[in-house]
Specification:
This protein is 25% helix and 30% strand. By secondary structure, the protein is α+β, with helices and mostly antiparallel strands. The chain has two domains: 179 residues, no CATH class; 139 residues, no CATH class. A four-stranded antiparallel sheet has the order 1-4-5-8. It has a four-stranded antiparallel sheet with strand order 2-7-6-3, with no helix packed on it. The chain has a four-stranded antiparallel sheet with strand order 9-10-11-12, with no helix packed on it. Strand 21 and strand 22 form a beta hairpin. The radius of gyration is 26 Å and the shape is globular. Bound molecules: fe (ii) ion (FE2). Fe (ii) ion binds next to loops. Its cofactor is Fe(2+). GO terms for molecular function: metal ion binding; oxidoreductase activity, acting on single donors with incorporation of molecular oxygen, incorporation of two atoms of oxygen. InterPro entries: Carotenoid_Oase. It holds the Pfam family RPE65.
Amino acid sequence: MKASAPFSTSQPLSCRTHGGRPSSMSMSAGARTATSVGTSSKRPWFGDLLGRLSSTMDGASRALKDAPQRFLDALVDATFRFTDQALNSAESNFAPVDETGEAIEIHQSQIQGAIPDGFPEGVYIRNGSNPLFGALHSTSSVLGQSREIWVEGEGMLHAVYFTKSSAGHLWSVSYASRYVQSETLELETARHKPCFLPAVEGDSAAIVAAYVFNYLRFGKVSKDISNTNVFEHSGRVFAVAENSLPYEICVGSLDTRDAWDVGGEWDRPFTAHPKVAPGSGELVIFGTDAKKPFLVVGVVSADGTKLKHRADLKLDRCTLCHDIGVTPKHNVIMDIPLTMDVGRIVKGGQLIQFEKESYARIGVMPRYGDADSAVWFDVEPFCMFHLVNCFEEGDEPRTSPYPLR
Ligand SMILES: [Fe+2]
């Protein structure tokens, strides 16, 4: 895989750089010891004692700091039992697969059909749920059961690379797959087991406990699943799911870089379907959260360096708005009665529910508008995830929503 070659080559250089530092430091330490011996025969012993004492104190301090964490880990391990969910036979095509790591060359004989003339070189990348440790998980405890729902598998990227020979008439096609190395995936991988308690579906007490324990142990209530989409903005490529920030990925190697918080200016969930605004090239984003503010819309500059605009639409519920429509001057927002409500769990209900007796609205707001400038149109209650065909006639924005009933 040509695109990954520069990365592989840079590794040994990096190792040599780091390898030089300890050698230089140990020489300094040796020089200090020699000087001490020459000054007083008691100082090495005293220095050694101080060093040991300091090291012991550091260890004790770390142990004290880690004690609550270890207690919580032990409590969760003793209270909750993780089990693998069975794979339905109808889901066999969607069963988890292993990473390939390095790209695998696809032989011409394995390619059905022909690559059309004029087909451009490049890469096609798909993102999808691929549960870590081979299955979605459930937990059971004295508090009841909770289980991961089908969208909660960790994101795996599948890339097909199309490159032409230097002569320009022979195709080389290769395939690679890798997990999005999110912060939470690295955490669970390091522990060799699922750690986040399922917190979406199940018995109320178990869900509440999952929220509390996940937050106390890891600082977040759910995993960064990063499994819904791949998008490009200003030459950078990101993997994303709507429950966390996007992670930047390297197209050539599928390595995961840092989470993207738009220069520290976006501190909440990030839609899986950001849209490039026609004309300006700005990226229109939004984030839906179970706590206030429920829905915030943002505009990222075309060069991806800054958040140019941010508006809390001041909704009074957490609508599971999954997509946004954009026209040259406006955003189209869906306020549907598929809602997420933590308070409902406490009352024995479900976190996510379609409230068919409730209301639905479609909102239109200027690109740089706010809650006051959004215009809402009441419509029959419906559930819809994606918007298509948003456009303007003159200054009039229009859209063609396709609802699921
Ligand atoms: Fe979607």
